[in-house]
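Quick start: read one record
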Amino acid sequence: MADIIQFVPRVESDAKQNLKDFICLAKEKLTAFEEGGGWDSDRWQQGKTVAVFATKTKPLGAYTYTPLSDPYRQFAKAYIRYTFSHRPVVSVMYDLHALRCLEAALLDVHGKADISLLNQVVLDVSADKCREYFSNSDVKHKTGLKIQKICEFCVKHSLVPSLPQWRSPFTKPKILNKALDEDGSNHRASKMPSHQAMLMVADLFANADDVETQYFSSIMVLLMVAPSRISEVLALPVNCIGWEEDNQGRQQMFLRWYAAKSKGNMKKWIIPAMHSVVEEAVRRLTVIGEPARIAAKFAYNNPGRIMGDAGVDIFPNSQRDNQLSPKELSDILALSSSQGNAIDSSGNVRWASIGGQKWLSKLVIDNKITYGRLADFIFNTYCGAEWPYSSSLGEVFMWNALCLHREGEFHSTFKTKPFSWRLPTTTEVNSRMQSKSSNSRRSLFERFELREVDGTPIVLTSHQLRHWLSTMSERAGMDDYTLAQWAGRARVSDNRYYDHRTPEEKFNTVQKLLHAEKPSVLERFRGKAPVTYSELGIDRLGTAKATLYGMCTHDYAMAPCQKQMECMTCKEHVCVKGDHVTLERIKRLEDQTEELLKLATVAHQDGIFGADRWVDNHKWKLANVRAMRMTLEQPGVPDGTLASIPNEHDPSAIERTLRSLDITYDHVSDPLVKPIVFQPTLGDS
């Protein structure tokens, strides 16, 4: 691990010199983001963390931006690299928000972006810029805290001549999931789809009779079977279904999943009732996307060539510099055009008139389009920045992506382009689940005349399905850890953002827990719930530890385990009658010990030195294990009964010493619960 370098300002230097030294240290001695473009680049990346030093004073998009103004940009880069080096994080988004607000404030107040001009007025204006740029109250709150942190950093390291004291004016927004007012109710209602809408999704999948409905309803089904994000579904491979045998020997289905938000690779378990539905959804997506996967694989194996309908080169004998005629171009791009309409009176080709594709003019040089130029354009259009992978995760090759389809696959008038491949966007999926004035396409629900109970149109988003499943799981009593694992959340605490139960529901749940009868020891032991020492017959505060065969009452605060985990010969170990899992383990241990006794007996008969001690040891252990097994199998012993070996069969070191001196020792014991004490026997052995 690289050494962490601390910046120590020189007291005798002025603020400008300290600022210069700080930037120099970050630029020349720190290495964070070095591989993601280096210091001179305005877009840094290290792992999944991306930093774009773009100004908010000019249009800022996903692909177009204007860099921050100098000299402020140098400070911004130094600050990001320095803070990231000391505390690496997944995202520096809010730090960049704060830096952009400060730059805009400096330009407004001083007409120059220079951090050394930071003062109280600039900080107040930066808060105004934050209000202007961001509407979400949570974003404003977090950005304000980052502005305050930058201010404190500059003061602490003497980077500014003044000493401004500033606190963010943005208060932490209330958690609407828990709010009891009208805002909380409206928030919960907006996140939760109706039960009618969820049933209509199932109807849509069952009645799908065209390619578009089959494709998008299958994606919706995969969102319904477990709490998921649309980006995770679109990242699935073709062979996403796996099977694994559970403890009862039944085959259980899981999806090979890559969960977002730092959870990573996992198994997304599917309940048995949905096994056949998931198989059908995956089958449909596999069939629909097979031509697109063939096209992607062809492009990878044949760079600079164009694939036709049959999965081979559309013009196998064509050279890359060969000129294409309008007819050939129309055949390749699956466009409608005639030779006459494409030629003007001077004999020149009107390329833009072919199928109304104005972008073709970008490929025209000397009034001609060559095969190679078109092939390169097609390749660059469909490959994307992650090629040959389907996403930035680098997990699935494009030709193995489950949700792949060709361009024009679902269009009513345009022909499908045989050489194309693409994944849908979240907006495209959502457009099939809701109709808006800005969207001319009717939703799939409208096409099948499916509506809410009150007759209003069904409006869904892909993320609402995740909220619905999480809330229904909470209502059904699923514990937080299991729900977080099932949903692919990195933190259990994130469950609260998806819990839209009403305050009344949560109150009733708490009431049931508070006033419910305490489960028996057997029920809690089966459910891995805590069992106290007093409930196991030990007059001491604390909670027993679960073992493979029962529960251990040893006090590890006083001394480590003296038995080296030989629990079945220890008087501090308690077994619980009625748990079939521990009984099966005890039976296996009995068989193993009996086999070891046979081997030791043969060795003793062969005269091997020391074998007699192993015979005695295995007999002693087998006696205890067999006696415990027989006790737990007794039909007259009720379930929940506690069983342990007698104290006399496991004397302590003090007891053994006293007995060797012929000193009588009476074991004093007054447990609150008296376990069954049995007499070990070797039986036939």
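The beta strands are 43-46, 49-52, 241-245, 251-259, 264-270, 545-546, 551-552, 573-576, 642-644, 676-677.
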